[in-house]
Amino acid sequence: MGALRAVLSHPGDVAPLVRVKMMANAAKRLPKDPDLAYCYDVLNKVSRSFAIVIQRLDAELRDAVCVFYLVLRALDTVEDDMSIPIERKVPDLLAFHEYIYDANYSADCGEKHYKDLMKNYPRVTSVFLGLKKEYRTVIADITKRMGHGMAKFIEKEVMDMADFDEYCHYVAGLVGIGLSNLWGVSKMESAEFVGEEKLSNAMGLFLQKTNIIRDYLEDIQELPAPRMFWPRSVWSKYAEELDDLQHEENREKAVQCMNELITNALSHSLDCLKYMSRVKEISIFRFCAIPQVMAIATLAECYGNENVFKGVVKIRRGLSARIMLKCNNMLELASGFKHFANELVHKVDPKSDPNGEETMARIEALEEACDEIIAKETERMRKEQIEDDSIPMATRIVLWLLCFGYFLYAWNLENVRESLGVNRHAGDPLVDDAQKVLATICIISTTALVMAGKKR
C-alpha cells in the first residue's frame, strides 16, 4: 500500500520504475556456466541495485567486479555475524584472502542469502580462479587489506573521527581503491587509476558513512551484541551511551548528533566529484555515479529526520529509479548532487543546530563546485552540438555549385540560357532583375558557408 501511495504521489516515477524493472529482469538472465550463473543469481539476491549496474558494465570487467563484490560480501558476512566467537572470527578475517584460492572453503554463518553465499562459496572461488591474473591479484590484495583492517576493529572501539575514517577506509575505501585498480589494469580507463588511493578512498568513505548513519537503529539493536560504528568523540557530546540515542527522551540530541555526522560525510563530496570527472568509459561512469547520488540523496533524507531512530529510512523507490537513469555524464551527476544539496539547505537551521553553520559551509562549497561543473559541461555540450549540427563540407560545396549555376543562369553569363534552349529575350525584365538579386544573395551566402566550414 505504501508503494502505491508513493507512486500516486509522484506519478512521474512510473516510467522510471518500469524501465528499472526491465533492467532488473535483464540482470536476472544468467550465463550458461553453472558457477558463474550462481554468482549472478546470488548477486541479484543480496543486492538488486548492484546487480543492475554490474550487469551493465562492459563484458571485460563484468565478471571480475561481480566476483570482487561477492568476495567482499562474504568477508563482510564473517565480520557482521555477531554469533561467531572473537577467537574464531579474527583468524578467519586475517586469512580470508587465502580462502579465495581454496576450492573447498565454505562457512556456516550469516543469514538468508548471505548464509547461502557462504555455504556455496566454492562456486565463487571457481569463477575467481578463472579470472585474468591481474584481476585476481587486485581482488586478493584488497581482500587481505580489508580483512586485516576488520580484524583490527573487532575489539577496538571507534573512539574519534580518525578511527571513524580508518574503519571506513578498511571496509569501503579499499573497495574504491580496488575498483580503481580494476579500471586501470583492464585498460578501459587510464593506467593512472592504478594506485590512485586518495580520491578512490573518498568515494568509499562517502558511501560507508552514509550507510553507518542511516543504519544506526539496525546496528544498535543487533543480536546477540550491538554493532557500534558511530565515533565516541561525537556521540558522547549528546548522550551517556550510544544506545541512549534511540530513546524518545533523547530525540533532539540524537538528531543533532546525526546531523554532525552527516556534516562530516559531506566533507568527502568534493573529492567524489573530482574522481568522477576523471572517469571516461560510460559503463564505469554509471557504475560509480549511481551509488554516489544515492548516498547524497540518503543524507538529505536523513538530515534532521528523527525517524532514523525509529525505523528504516530510505529514499523512495521511484526516486531511486530516477537516479539510476540519470547518471550518464558529469552534467547529470553534478545536477543530481546539486538537487540534493539544495534539499539539505532547506533543512539546515544554523540557529537550532550546533553544527548548522559548518553544515551550510560544506553545502555551499558543494553547490559552488556543482555550478562550475554544470556551466562547464553545458558549454562543452553546446559546442559539441554545434559541431554535430554543422553542415558537412561536401554538402556546402554542392550547395555552392547549385547556387553558382543559378547565378550564371540569372545573369545569363556565357549564354547559359541559350545553351539550355531558353530565349533570353522572352522573359519579363522585372522577373529577370529579381532573379539576379536572388542569385547574387545565394552565391554570397553559400560562399560564406563554405568559408566558415574551412575555419572549423
Automatic annotation (TrEMBL):
Single Gene Ontology BP annotation: farnesyl diphosphate metabolic process
Gene Ontology CC entries for this record: endoplasmic reticulum membrane
Subcellular location: Membrane
Name of protein: Squalene synthase
EC number: 2.5.1.21
SUPFAM superfamilies, sorted: Terpenoid synthases (SSF48576)
Role of this protein: Catalyzes the condensation of 2 farnesyl pyrophosphate (FPP) moieties to form squalene.
Required cofactor(s): Mg(2+)
Species of provenance: Ostreococcus lucimarinus (strain CCE9901)
Keyword Cell membrane: no
InterPro entries: Isoprenoid_synthase_dom_sf (IPR008949), Squ/phyt_synthse (IPR002060), Squal_synth-like (IPR006449), Squalene/phytoene_synthase_CS (IPR019845), Trans_IPPS_euk-type (IPR044844), Trans_IPPS_HH (IPR033904)
Gene Ontology MF terms: D-glucose transmembrane transporter activity; squalene synthase [NAD(P)H] activity
Keywords: Lipid biosynthesis, Lipid metabolism, Membrane, Transferase, Transmembrane, Transmembrane helix
Chemical reaction(s) catalysed: 2 (2E,6E)-farnesyl diphosphate + NADPH + H(+) = squalene + 2 diphosphate + NADP(+); 2 (2E,6E)-farnesyl diphosphate + NADH + H(+) = squalene + 2 diphosphate + NAD(+)
Main location: membrane
Pfam families: SQS_PSY
Family note: Belongs to the phytoene/squalene synthase family.
